[in-house]
């Protein structure tokens, strides 16, 4: 009889515990569902996503890099520069943000700043062939064909399948040969 009584008590406790687990589980699902519904508004496009993300996770370097990209697309270059610099301040060796900052400076014709930041991007991201290419293009425009050739050659070495890089390198070499 005591075994049956003990079984009945344990069964009731288990049943109550099981109900509690179900209740907690349902509450968690409802809370996460509500958060998902409100977060859907943030996913209208990539810009609304990054603007809302920075409100809850403002210390991420990738977030600030992406905001810099967004402001650059909006032609808000001061904000773009500020966001890239914030990304670099958070992650001082973040070559992608340095490259993007250089692109922004180039866009607003601040060539010296662009040269500096492309050089920094190469220093911290030596496989970032786009920085070699863009810096090489600047030196080409400045008539510094030797530097341009070196940079395009490095870009081709990193990314040998890019036919445009190879063509640009050949153009530079041809012009360099014609000058001599």
UniProtKB/TrEMBL annotation:
Transmembrane segments: 20-38
Keyword annotations from UniProtKB, A to Z: Membrane, Repeat, TPR repeat, Transmembrane, Transmembrane helix
Top-rank taxon: Bacteria
Acetylation among keywords: no
InterPro entries per UniProt: O-mannosyl-transferase_TMTC, TPR-like_helical_dom_sf, TPR_rpt
TPR repeat start-end pairs: 61-94, 95-128, 129-162
UniProt-recorded name of the protein: Uncharacterized protein
